[in-house]
Amino acid sequence: QVPLVESGGGLVQAGGSLRLSCAASGRSFRNYAMGWFRQAPGMEREFVAVVGRTGTRTYYADSVKGRFTISRDISKDTVYLQMNSLKPEDTAVYSCAADYLGTGVYSLSPRKDEYDYWGQGTQVTVSS
C-alpha cells in the first residue's frame, strides 16, 4: 500500500495555476515534516518545498519562492501545493514525501535522502 497519494496534476498553460494534494493512506504523518519534490525527464529529483508538523513553518526552493505555497490540513492529514504563475520549466513529476521529526526536532530539510516515505507522483505539464 502506497503511504502517500498525490492528486491534482495535469496540463496547464504558462501563467496558469494548479493545486496538488497529498493524502496519507494507511498511517498518520502528523509527526512528520511533509515535502514536495519534482523530477523532470533526464534530471535529478529536486526539492520544491517543505512544511513542518504544525503547518506554521515552511521552506522553499529559490526557483519557486513567491509562486508556490505549501500548506497542510492536520485534521485531514493532507498536504497541499498551490502553484501559481507556472512556467514551462516547472514541468515534472511532483512527489510528496514525509520526514520523521523526533521530539524537539523542528528543522526542515531539503535533502531527499532524509525523507522516509514517498508517494508515486503526479505529472504536471506546463505548455508555453
Descriptive account of the structure:
This protein is mostly beta strands. Helix content is 0%, strand content 48%. The protein contains no helices and eleven strands. The chain has strands at 4-7, 10-13, 18-24, 32-39, 46-51, 58-60, 68-73, 78-83, 92-100, 117-118, 122-127. The strands form two sheets. Strands 2, 4, 5, 6, 9, 10 and 11 form a seven-stranded mixed β-sheet that branches. It is globular.
List the helices and strands and how they pair.
Layout: E1 4-7, E2 10-13, E3 18-24, E4 32-39, E5 46-51, E6 58-60, E7 68-73, E8 78-83, E9 92-100, E10 117-118, E11 122-127
Parallel strand pairs: 2-11
Antiparallel strand pairs: 1-3, 3-8, 4-5, 4-9, 5-6, 7-8, 9-10, 9-11
Low-confidence stretches: none
Shape: globular
Described by strand count, sense and barrel closure, the largest sheet is:
7 strands, mixed
How many runs of DSSP E, i.e. beta strands? 11
Rg, Cα atoms, Å? 14 Å
Portion of residues in beta strands equals: over 45%
Helix content, binned percent: under 10%
Please tally the helical runs, counting DSSP H or I stretches of 4 or more residues.
0
Arithmetic mean pLDDT = 95
Report the span from N to C terminus: 36 Å
Q: Secondary-structure element sequence?
A: EEEEEEEEEEE
SSE-based structural type: mainly beta
